[in-house]
Amino acid sequence: MSEIELRARNFLSVLRHCQHLQITVESADQSGLVLRLPYSEQIVGNPVTGVIHGGAITTLMDTCCGISTVCYLPEFEICPTLDLRIDYMHPAEPGKPIFGFAECYRVTPTVIFTRGVAYQDDREQPIAHVVGTFMRMGKAVDQAELGKQIDQGEA
């Protein structure tokens, strides 16, 4: 397992809402991050059709874009979401997991720009497109211990 993938897994492991949703890291490298959201009756938005609620997909994609920053930055930084836009293309097929892919495409001293897609079988047939911006807060003293724990898997 690469250092980037380990850092992404460790970061995801401290997010309690992601643990509840059973989101996992499929892959992580310098080109981006793929997360997996398993299908569950608990996150169905329409019980008649079995379609997953858009809020679960939003959580997946906000998390995916946010954690994709660890694929790009040389050291862990807390980068809260500034803005997130999701364009839904079509509903997810019931009974199947949803994957989120995100990448950083521009990094400035104060903002990180990300983009990605939510999909099921084929990344070229997305359920949703996402763009997100995240504020760089730097490696402040109070973040140092959390960053160390995430880097070392102790969080």
UniProtKB/TrEMBL annotation:
Any one GO MF annotation of this record: 1,4-dihydroxy-2-naphthoyl-CoA thioesterase activity
- Domain named Thioesterase: which ranges? 50-125
Q: Which domain of life is it from?
A: Bacteria
Look up the record and report any one GO term of the cellular component aspect: cytosol
Keywords tagged on the record: Hydrolase
State the name under which the record lists this protein: Thioesterase
Gene3D superfamilies in the record, alphabetically? Hotdog Thioesterase
Q: Which InterPro entries match?
A: HotDog_dom_sf (IPR029069), PAAI_dom (IPR003736), Thioestr_dom (IPR006683)
